[in-house]
Structures are given as C-alpha cells and as structure tokens.
Amino acid sequence: MFTTLAYVALFLICSWGVFKIDQKSQSLSRCVFIAIFLGAAIGISLHFMATENSKTIIEWYSIIGNGYVNLLKLVAIPLIFISILSAINKLENNAGIGKMSLTIVACMLCLVMIAGFVGLFTAHAIGLDASAFGQMQSTLTAEDIDKTAAVSLPQLMTSLIPTNIFLDLTGARSVSVIGIVIFTLLAGIALLKVKKDAPEEGEKLSAGINAIQIWVMKMVRIVIALTPYGVMALMAKVFSTYQLSQFTSLLGFIAACYLAVAMMFIVHAILLVLSGKNPIHYFKTVWPVLTFAFVSRSSAASIPLAISAQEKYGVPNTIANIAASFGSSMGQNGCAGIYPAIMVAMIAPTMGVDPLSLHFLATLLPAIALGSIGVAGVGGGGTFASLIVLSTLNFPVALVGIFIAIEPVVDMARTALNVNGSMMSGVLATRLLGEKSQEQQHSATMN
Known about the structure:
Blueprint: H1 2-25, H2 28-49, H3 52-89, H4 95-126, H5 142-149, H6 153-160, H7 165-169, H8 176-197, H9 199-224, H10 227-241, H11 251-274, H12 279-296, H13 303-313, H14 317-327, H15 333-347, H16 358-378, H17 382-392, H18 398-402, H19 407-433, H20 435-446
C-alpha cells in the first residue's frame, strides 16, 4: 500500500512540475517531450520493481492515461461534424467539396501503396523467410478468416455509406467516423443550397453553426491541454508492461517492421521537400501527435490532435478534418501498407515468387490499396489487412496468426505512421488543390 501511494504521489509531483513548465513556457510540444521522459522513467522503475503493487499502480495511472484517450474520442465526433460543416458554411459553392474528398482519398491510397513497397523491399533486403516460423503455433481462428472471406471492393465501398447517423454517432460501426464525414458533407451541401434558396433561414443556420463551432473548439482545447499528463501515464504503462523476453524469437520481424516504418517516415520527408515544404518544421509541428499515437495505439483517439496539428501547419480546416477522419479507418500506411507487405515478402520466396518483379508488384500494390479500404470494412487493423492482402494473392494466411502475439509491440510504430500518413494526405492534398483553395480557406477564416 505504501509503494502504491508513493508512486501515485510521484506521478502527481511530476504532473505539477509539467504544469509549472507549461505555465512558464506556454509550449505544449516541450511539455509533451518532458512528459515522455518522466513517464518512461516511472515505467522503467516499475518494470524492474516487478511486485504485486505494480499492477495496482498502473491501474491508478490508467485513470489518467485511458481517461485522456476516452476524452479525445469523446470530442472527436462533434469536432469532425462541426468543423467540416463550419468550413463548408464559409464556402461560396459546393463545387470543390467532391474534388477535395477524392484528392485526399487518392493521396491516401498512393501513400499506402508506397508504404507497401517499402515494407516489401525492407523484408526482402533483410532476408526474412517464412520457413523460419514454420514450427510456430498460429493463433488465427476460423472466425478471423471468415471475416475476410467474402470481402469485395463493392461491399467495402457500400459499407462506408451510413444508414443511420445516430448509430454512427455512437461509434457502433467500425466505419462510424467515415459515415459521419459523409453525412456531414451531405449536410454541408444542403446548407449551401438553403443559403442560396432561402437566405433568411440560411443566415440563421449559419450563425448557429458558427456559435456551436466556437463552443466545441473550446472543449477540444481543454482536452488537448491535458496531453502531457495523459502521455506521461500512457508511457509509464508501456514501459512497465513491455516484456522483451517474450518476443526474442520474433525480433527479426519486429526489427523489420520498425526499420520499414522509419524508412517510410523518410519517404514522407522527401515528399514534403518535393512539394516545397520544410520537413523539419512539419515534424516539429506534428511531434505531439505522433507521440500520442505511439503510446495510445489509437488512430481514432488521435483525430483531434491530428486536425489541430494540420491546421497549425497551414492545412485548410475542411481538408484537415476529412484527412484525419478518413485516415483513422482507411489508407493506413503502417497497418495496411507495411505490415502485410512484410508478410508477403516472407511468403513469396517459399512459393517460388520474386516479390520485386514488376508483374508481382502490379498485383500486390492494388491488393494493398484494397486492403487499406478493407481495414475500414472489417476492422482489426494490421491482422485483417494482412488477411485481405494474402487472401487476394492466394497466399497461405497462417503466418498472420503467428504474429498476433507481438502485435502490441509493432502496433505502436504502425499507429504513429498511420496517423502521419493521414496528416501527410492533408498536406499533399492542399498542395495538389493549389493556391486558390488555400486562399479561399484563409479569407473564410478571416471573415
């Protein structure tokens, strides 16, 4: 009991220190960076202490860590709805909304295919071979395979279209966020038509939407201000429960995943340079988001932070919302790109297939794009994306089950890359849509 109280007191003292630094520096990024190291230090000490009290201490820390994640999920839905609606409210017409959405989705699919190639090349260069894992027990169930057995692109596309917005507002479907975005786009187009056909009623709706946006943004800023404390608690949990000894036989696969993720971040930086952006400034801006995504392993919970970071970097509000929202459920660079591609690279040589041949890549990369949409359709992250890709290629799926045990280890890096991929889609879409789109958003914000 004394140990538990001591660690709770230690966390409170560290939180107070971060709070004082925040008051003095007014820099969220600096506070998050400090909180990461404090949380890691607390977690490592708990890890080596390894007593019965450790679990109890982490449960108390989880009030802060998991509570923060829940609050982010709580404000994500109203933020997505009102931000997109408010941005459309400030447009003159609805001509650019469809083009904007298609451009963002196209960027996501291109990025996830690039990520797939990076994962394939990395695993092939390292020399990972599926035969080395032939004696290991797969934990894949028949139910897992059945979820992807009947997957088709038309079914996946249909599943994205909402049938009951109130059901999606509860998050009951795996694609609820996308459903809400589609509904909001529809509502926004209808709003523009009301403003044109019935100006008096349109002005009333417009004023109400603007007031609600101010209210929701205040709530979001309150929650985001809690980021250092939530991250510190999450880091303490990660470092106290991580058991490297459990995964020694799979270290090669884990190393390949992390190396491929690092290479994809480099690709993102190169794309920023090619689009005329400063990658150093970009990564400084999104660092708190990537940190949170890494420790929380939740793309959905990262949505408010991702939107805020994109806007801070200069991405228009509507594009930032659509990119972060769609990116939480589809086009995921880590889960749907790198992870299944590494498995493909391991299996292909055992079947006499050259994974880097142009003919095979022409089959694999579209399958990865399909799998990135399939993640949204069936849920389950990297596991189900891998099942979709391997099934599409007629490859054996048993390897997927072997790596389920170490998914939490690689999922931290995968999630950070997923979130960065969604933000990169917003940045690239802004660049592709041109200066005119950015100027319109800027003038709308000034008004």
